[in-house]
Write a structure and sequence with these properties.
heterodimer; A: alpha/beta; D-Maltodextrin-Binding Protein, domain 2; 2 domains; 6-stranded mixed beta sheet; two-stranded antiparallel ribbon; globular; B: mainly beta; Porin; 16-stranded antiparallel barrel; 5 helices; 18 strands
């Protein structure tokens, strides 16, 4: 979105009303939609992991960076920006962990040498791409989506 | 420096160097090198007594810097190292030190738990905050509750990291998990600043050594950490070996500590409490001095309220007694004022109670700003190095400390 400002040909100082209006409209739409995450998110996992379902405790431990490998495959955790409402909703409603707890688990992990921290992606589109192309990749999406190379991971004993 | 300490220091430096300058082709092997770090700057102002520099005039003498590297060549093996520089008043001058440098091997990793061992310089988990005590963003305020996360004593080296081995294990249940951490330290000569702080002199010709150190922590988490309970036991043995023409004699200072920790988390509210009971023994050191044992006690309770996104406010009460049988410090003060005494201490040197009101604002996931105000009674946990007056029975019993801190992590 910000790119549209910078890519404007011959943009010398002042932007046209149309660009500004369009950008504002886009921003409002994004803000509106992202502040109302639709339903519960799904956990998605790269096809290199054999499991089709995992207990909630294990999924929590994966997103807290404590369990770092499954079936001998190293895991890479992908998350959205912690300020993103989809992240907050996933953390709370799916993992059953408040976002601030997850953040402190990551900080503790990164600064005690236990892990390299999660990989923060910019959008769900990037999440989809990175999880499907990274062996051992795991992340979440706000809507179930089909993509070659990854699938939805079922949760056993999910949060009430 | 003893032989094996030197060897470990070299091994740590080698590990750190290896992590930074690995051949590029190894980086491409799906095992990228990850770098992270932190920078924090504090400002402290106190009405009386100095805390980290001349805080009565306003002090910027609280700067923490760190950079770490993490590499996982295989699914079960990882290498990690962190360099930390901490400038905090007179005692810590910011000389970089290897905070940790270890090899971690996961022996087990499955859907019902995991476990592994670490070899090298490892961090010791004590209570909730010890492992990352020098990283501002991981602390529950600008200053850690000193009752539990004490800075003085001869055990500081043990608290900030030991050369040795650590083992960890975690078991998952349907709604809970149990974690166990065991740490074993190799014997070592304590750092110069620790020796000076403990022996209260820089001119002792002998060596203060850590002869044995073990730590065990059990951590229980319910419903993903809504409730966290932990118990930690640490056993540290230090020994003074006199040098030639020494005015001190051989001495031993065993410390046994038990820490209980509790945390209760809700979406916008958290309650944390930790308590410590320490047995501090002393025999020898001063010619003909009788053996002595005292029991230190302390606790803190902190309530944190998250009132807007990224904003939090907290209220904490922190209490410490040097000797549970002399909570007001009068007997200990009287004992320190003998006619031969070189360092008479006021009673307020033997306890410290404080109320802290703090506020934090996480502007972005990387930036954190904090402000806090401490209303303090006592100086037992206030650095002696910043307050030479304490050794002439000086210092103020009641004082206030105001702090600001900005920290950035990457």
């Amino acid at each position: 979105m910000r790119d549209s400002f910078f890519r404007r040909p011959g943009g010398a100082g002042i932007f046209g009303y149309r660009q500004v209006t369009l950008a504002l409209a886009l921003w409002v739409v994004t803000a509106l939609f992202s502040s109302v995450p639709a339903g519960a998110q799904v956990v998605v996992i790269n096809d290199s992991i054999a499991e089709t379902a995992l207990p909630i405790a294990t999924i929590r431990a994966i997103f807290s960076l404590r369990v770092q490998a499954l079936d001998g495959q190293k895991l890479t955790v992908f998350v959205l920006d912690p300020r993103d409402p989809v992240h907050a909703s996933f953390s709370k409603d799916v993992l059953g962990v408040f976002p601030y707890q997850l953040q402190s688990a990551w900080d503790r992990s990164v600064f005690s040498g236990a892990s390299s921290g999660p990989v923060v992606v910019n959008s769900e589109t990037e999440m989809l791409r990175r999880v499907s192309t990274t062996a051992g990749g795991i992340g979440y999406l706000s809507l179930p989506a089909a993509q070659e190379g990854m699938r939805i991971l079922n949760i056993q004993g999910g949060n009430p | 420096m003893t032989g094996h300490r030197k060897a470990i220091a070299w091994a740590s430096a080698y590990l750190f160097a290896t992590l930074f300058w690995l051949p590029p082709q190894l980086h491409a092997l799906d095992a990228p090198l990850h770098l992270h770090g932190f920078i924090s700057q504090g400002y402290l102002h106190s009405t009386h007594n100095n805390y980290y520099g001349s805080s009565t005039q306003g002090s910027f003498d609280l700067t923490e810097l760190g950079v770490n590297a993490f590499l996982a060549p295989t699914a079960s093996l990882s290498l990690a190292a962190q360099l930390v520089s901490r400038r905090a008043g007179e005692l810590y001058d910011g000389t970089p030190r290897m905070d940790y440098a270890f090899m971690d091997y996961r022996l087990h990793s499955s859907t019902d738990g995991y476990g592994g061992v670490r070899l090298g310089r490892v961090k010791i988990p004590i209570g909730f905050h010890n492992e990352t005590r020098d990283v501002a963003t991981t602390r529950p305020g600008i200053l850690l509750p000193q009752s539990v996360y004490v800075e003085g004593l001869g055990i500081r080296d043990f608290y900030i990291g030991v050369d040795g081995m650590a083992a960890y294990w975690e078991w998952f249940q349907e709604r809970s998990s149990l974690q166990m951490d065991l740490g074993l330290a190799l014997p070592t000569t304590l750092q110069g600043e620790t020796q000076a702080a403990f022996l209260r002199t820089v001119s002792a010709p002998g060596d203060l050594r850590l002869t044995s150190g073990q730590n065990l922590r059990l951590l229980y988490e319910h419903d993903g950490g809504l409730l966290r309970l932990a118990a930690t036991y640490s056993r540290v043995r230090t020994e003074y070996r006199p040098g030639g023409q020494d005015f001190l004699v051989r001495g031993q200072a065993p410390v046994d500590a038990l820490v209980f920790s509790m945390e209760w988390n809700r979406e916008d509210f958290s309650l944390v409490a930790e308590a410590v009971h320490r047995r501090v023994g002393r025999s020898g050191f001063i010619p003909f001095a009788p053996d002595a044992t005292r029991y230190e006690q302390g606790y803190y309770v902190q309530a944190t309220y998250r009132f807007a996104r990224g904003w939090e406010a907290f209220l904490r009460h922190d209490s410490h007694w040097n000797d549970r049988d002399d909570r007001g410090g009068e007997q200990q003060s009287a004992a320190s004022r003998g006619s031969q005494s070189l360092a008479p201490q006021a009673p307020h040197r033997f306890f410290q109670h404080q109320w802290t009101l703090g506020m934090g604002w996480r502007m972005t996931p990387q930036w954190l700003l904090r402000a806090e105000w401490h209303h303090i009674h006592g100086t037992a946990l206030t650095p002696l190095a910043d307050n030479p007056a304490f050794d002439q029975a000086g210092g103020r019993a009641r004082w206030d400390l105001f702090g600001l801190q900005a920290s950035f992590t990457f």
